[in-house]
């Protein structure tokens, strides 16, 4: 048996199509969606990722403003986020990590207006998500669900093992899966006997950041494995948390690294931006204010 390849490209294409439709509707009403990215590092890998957001936004007709603030201090970043919150032309805010040493990241993400928090960074967004209230989930976590749903992999009633407990993937993903009636086990790097949780699981999601951690010994026959890991091996190649060579002959389906979850994440960030713009502009039109208010 060879595992079905759960490529992210068709999922991202589907998201881009509905984004294009909404952008067309917004433009017809005289509105322009806009995302702002705060970049406070000289890290080239991070800069490459931000450029990919810029390209994705441009392709979808969404304005993207990148605030280059290398080695900015706490006060400068607080002022920048506050200004973006107040800027009615900005509908989505991304505080790109890593941030300069000594900066209080937790304090900064709490400043992001939840209505503009398109990557679910503010703890308030995670709290709302946990009780089923409207909120933007972190794009990487939501990408996992988008892949499962696109390929019509059943979630309701299934046991899902989520390996990773970060606020970016593991915790919000668990909430998204619970909303879809899955039974969720949350594991992490210190879970004893990881296989006791992953072997019985119909779906295993790896998001712990350890290269090749999951092997064929830890998965059941005909299960589905989603790899969220992004690690660089000794040869300088990008690899996931799953040892794909050993797992692939055993499982029913596997998402690749690269080419899986990461492909969907950027498309979702632009989709979230357009959704945020639509909510603001619907409110403005309902109040009868000038259309230029959110342009």
From TrEMBL:
Domain Tetrahydrofolate dehydrogenase/cyclohydrolase catalytic: from-to ranges: 6-119
Annotated positions binding NADP(+): 164-166, 230
Annotated catalysed reactions: (6R)-5,10-methenyltetrahydrofolate + H2O = (6R)-10-formyltetrahydrofolate + H(+); (6R)-5,10-methylene-5,6,7,8-tetrahydrofolate + NADP(+) = (6R)-5,10-methenyltetrahydrofolate + NADPH
Keywords, ordered alphabetically: Amino-acid biosynthesis, Histidine biosynthesis, Hydrolase, Methionine biosynthesis, Multifunctional enzyme, NADP, One-carbon metabolism, Oxidoreductase, Purine biosynthesis
E.C. numbers: 1.5.1.5, 3.5.4.9
GO biological process, one term: tetrahydrofolate interconversion
InterPro entries: Aminoacid_DH-like_N_sf, NAD(P)-bd_dom_sf, THF_DH/CycHdrlase, THF_DH/CycHdrlase_cat_dom, THF_DH/CycHdrlase_NAD-bd_dom
Pfam families in alphabetical order: THF_DHG_CYH, THF_DHG_CYH_C
Pathway stated in the Swiss-Prot or TrEMBL entry: One-carbon metabolism; tetrahydrofolate interconversion
UniProt GO molecular function: methenyltetrahydrofolate cyclohydrolase activity; methylenetetrahydrofolate dehydrogenase (NADP+) activity
Domain Tetrahydrofolate dehydrogenase/cyclohydrolase NAD(P)-binding: 138-279
Top-rank taxon: Bacteria
GO cellular component: cytosol
Subunit structure: Homodimer.
Family recorded in the similarity comment: Belongs to the tetrahydrofolate dehydrogenase/cyclohydrolase family.
Function per UniProt: Catalyzes the oxidation of 5,10-methylenetetrahydrofolate to 5,10-methenyltetrahydrofolate and then the hydrolysis of 5,10-methenyltetrahydrofolate to 10-formyltetrahydrofolate.
Name the record gives this protein: Bifunctional protein FolD
Record organism: Glutamicibacter mishrai
């Amino acid at each position: 048996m060879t595992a079905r390849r759960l490529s992210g490209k068709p999922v991202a294409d589907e998201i881009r199509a509905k984004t294009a439709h909404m952008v067309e509707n917004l433009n017809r009403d005289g509105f322009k969606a806009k995302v702002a990215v705060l970049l406070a590092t000289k890290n080239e890998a991070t800069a490459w990722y931000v450029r990919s957001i810029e390209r994705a936004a441009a392709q979808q007709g969404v304005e993207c403003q990148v605030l280059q603030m290398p080695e900015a201090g706490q006060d400068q970043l607080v002022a920048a986020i506050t200004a973006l919150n107040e800027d009615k032309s900005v509908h989505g805010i991304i505080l790109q990590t890593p941030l300069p040493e000594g900066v209080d990241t937790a304090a900064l993400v709490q400043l992001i207006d939840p209505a503009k928090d398109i990557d679910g960074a503010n703890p308030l967004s995670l709290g709302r998500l946990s009780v089923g209230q409207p909120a933007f989930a972190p794009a990487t976590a939501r990408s996992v669900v988008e892949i499962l749903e696109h390929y019509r992999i059943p979630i309701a009633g299934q046991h899902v093992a989520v390996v990773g407990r970060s606020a970016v993937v593991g915790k919000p993903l668990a909430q998204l899966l619970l909303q879809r009636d899955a039974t969720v086990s949350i594991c992490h790097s210190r879970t004893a006997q990881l296989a006791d949780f992953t072997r019985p699981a119909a779906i295993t999601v790896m998001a712990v950041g350890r290269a090749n951690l999951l092997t064929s010994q830890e998965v059941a026959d005909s299960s589905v494995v989603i790899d969220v890991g992004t690690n660089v091996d000794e040869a300088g190649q990008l690899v996931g948390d799953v040892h794909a060579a050993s797992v692939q002959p055993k499982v029913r389906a596997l998402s690749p690294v690269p080419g899986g979850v990461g492909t969907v994440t950027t498309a979702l960030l632009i989709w979230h931006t357009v959704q945020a713009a639509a909510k603001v502009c619907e409110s403005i039109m309902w109040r009868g204010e000038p259309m230029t208010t959110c342009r």
